[in-house]
Amino acid sequence: MTVTFTTKIVNILGDKTSKALTKAFGMERVEDLMRHYPRRYAELGALTDLSKLVPGQHVTIMARVKGAKNYSFGPGGRRTRTEVVVTDGTGELKLTFFQQAWRLKTMEQGTLGLFAGQVTVFRNEFQLTHPDFEAINESEDPTENTRLGRGVIPLYRSTSALPSWRIEDCVGLCLDALTDLDDPLPDSVRKKHGYFDMRGSLEAIHRPRNRQDYERARARFRFEEAFVIQTVFAMRRIAVEAETATARPEKPGGLRERFERRLPFELTAGQRDVIAELTHDLSGSHPMHRLLQGEVGSGKTVVALLAMLQTVDAGGQAAMLAPTEVLASQHYRAITTMLGDLAKAGMLGGAEGATRVRLLTGSLGAKARKESLLDAASGEAGIVVGTHALLQAHVQFADLGLVVVDEQHRFGVEQRAALADKSATKPHVLVMTATPIPRTVAMTVFGDLETSTLRELPAGRLPIQTSVVPVAEKPAWLERAWQRVREEVGKGRQAYVVVSRIGDTIETEEKETRSLLDVYAELADGPLSDLRLGMLHGRMSGDDKDATMTAFGNHELDVLVATTVVEVGVDVPNASVMVVMDADRFGMSQLHQLRGRIGRGSEPGLCLLVTTSEDGSPTRERLDAVASTTDGFELSKLDVEFRREGDVLGARQSGVRSSLRLLSAVKHESVILEAREDADAIVAADPQLTGHPVLASAVRALESTDQSDYLERT
Ligand code: ADP
Ligand code: MG
């Protein structure tokens, strides 16, 4: 029988086992199992003796279960603690698990296993709390070919039904059965880097003889992941180069120039640099495809507006897409205000050669909607601002020249494509995000976009001061926080209170998460009862949201209690203080975004991160990091490290086909750079990959999964 990567595992492992693997990990084909790389290795030579434990040390020990028992405790005896005593012949150690009574079954007396965790001291005894555990199958001889004989035990991601050693057996069976092996890495590339061939690499990662074996194999598979992604991007870049767009060069004396002359502020050096790049791109006859990353508050909107005006001057139209109605309305208001008479074409007081700006969102009234549609289709509207409503098929443009997508991470590839289809030639595309991402993440995620960066804030901004309010240790500080809010309001300023949930307060084992409705009610009844409170969340109608936002913008409200609908872009310069409830529920970049809503005016902003997390816990470290720096780029880097890159890229950790298993977009910069160079060379020499059929199919597979969708969307 010929066995390849695409052979079904059921043909080799039988019905029962393959069903279990499908259920646990979604595995179907041999490749799925082969790509289920061990997540760690236990080297028998590096195990720790129980007689030599040191508190605080991370250890892996091989030991046998001596006894295990469940204990009930807590109110009504509803909680359980499982205590397991293990021994390795030199000593004993206690393992403790909370709320995991099922552990008892997997750790029967006599079970031999590997336990990994950090040594702690409790009541003068060493112990491991919630250690990692892998049972070892002892039914085999410790001869040369077994894991015990080799001295390195691969540890796989496993389930209670499929322990690591069972997966190892299945991997072994398939590896031995494989007759033909496909390698997406071209030979020339593989040899250049000195990697094992596919069989050697699989052997070395699944059945290593030593650490060098698996490290070399991991390096190769990591490179392979980067290489396939970079091949996708190299091919896309070539495709883009072949496309044509209408050139939209600058026009002397046009709207852009007139607007620039009357700007009430000096552009920052960074803004000028980015504008120069955009001017150049728009003047070319290839579609611009650029990502603008800007620190929160760095002034991206005005940069985009200049590009839009340049497009209008050249006879085209510009569309600006925002992720929410709140943001779309705000952009619309800001743009019409900034342009003044330049946006009043055909209206009383309109300037000579003026254009028109239109808004298009789902909740617009029928009349306004019709006017917007007509003006977009006739070309009367030079600029149309909107939400996803802009993407609908019946929205037509006379000559769409530029698409600006604000806060891109909410928009998918198809949506971008839908907009691009509204134009006879490909429009230029500018994607803006205030969620800065490290360079290599950008290269992995947006590898087909050129990037520009705005780090600098306009002069005169005062830094936002951020403090953690640890209510577990210092309950009185929360009262102090509300007092600060009242003080700011007393000075004529405004405040945000941000909450992570809308409906119900939830209580879990570890903590309680307050809901918006509860927080609102408590504040209105208690500490902020004398202030004008408003509420904003995603379940409100578009009109209600708009009315609330407008009221807050006009200072008819003092405090806005909101969910993360205020996360991006909202610009109310009079707001000076923000209290974030259950701040540990938010990512670091998200908190940075949130606090970017304050400190936009002439006074310093204050951001208070309320948390029940404990001093020294990882959650608390994240909050402390947010409090300690105002550099969004720095934070995003830390954020990625804390969250693990998988989440950043949207890779489904559980999905077999998720393509990033070993590659970290943050840590493996040099790998990504080399892969990009090699991929460019391969694609330049063979744009259709006719000479590399395996690579071509890996590229197709990547493009057809959700993953590649995510690769752009994140
Ligand atoms: P973001 O990059 O976060 O989208 P915005 O475009 O909303 O930032 O700009 C934030 C605020 O800064 C706006 O009120 C804008 O008018 C103002 N702004 C933009 N550029 C400058 C500048 N060069 N000098 C002073 N203020 C500026
Ligand atoms: Mg913005």
Structural overview:
Helix 10 (255-261) packs antiparallel against helix 12 (300-313) and helix 20 (588-595) packs parallel to helix 21. This protein has 26 helices and 23 strands. It is globular, with a radius of gyration of 29 Å. The protein is α/β, with parallel strands linked by helices and 714 residues long. Strands 11-12-10-13-14-9-15 form a 7-stranded parallel beta sheet, sandwiched between helices. Among the domains are: 40-148, Beta Barrel (OB fold (Dihydrolipoamide Acetyltransferase, E2P)), CATH 2.40.50.140; 255-283 and 298-433, Rossmann fold (3-Layer(aba) Sandwich), CATH 3.40.50; 464-629, 3-Layer(aba) Sandwich (Rossmann fold), CATH 3.40.50. The structure holds adenosine-5'-diphosphate and magnesium ion. Magnesium ion (MG) is lined by residues 300-301, 406, 434, 569.
Residue fraction in strands: 15-25%
* Biggest sheet, spatial arrangement of strands: 11-12-10-13-14-9-15
Please, what is the average pLDDT?
Answer: 86
Shape-level CATH architecture of the domain at 464-629: 3-Layer(aba) Sandwich
Q: How is the secondary structure organized here?
A:
Blueprint (H helix, E strand, L loop, with lengths): L9 H4 L1 H11 L4 H5 L5 E4 L14 E16 L5 E9 L4 E7 L4 H4 L5 E11 L2 E5 L2 E4 L11 H4 L1 E4 L8 H14 L9 H7 L4 H9 L4 H32 L12 H7 L7 H14 L6 E6 L5 H14 L3 E5 L3 H15 L16 E5 L5 H13 L2 E6 L13 E7 L6 H8 L7 E6 L5 H7 L4 E5 L10 E6 L5 H15 L3 E5 L7 E2 L4 E2 L2 H10 L7 E4 L5 H12 L5 E4 L12 E6 L7 H8 L10 E6 L6 H11 L3 H12 L1 H4 L20 H17 L7 H12 L1 H8 L1
Parallel strand pairs: 4-6, 9-14, 9-15, 10-12, 10-13, 11-12, 13-14, 16-23, 17-21, 17-22, 20-21, 22-23
Antiparallel strand pairs: 1-8, 2-3, 2-5, 3-4, 5-6, 5-7, 18-19
Helix pairs in contact: 6-8, 8-9, 9-24, 9-25, 10-12, 11-12, 20-21, 20-22
The structure holds adenosine-5'-diphosphate and magnesium ion.
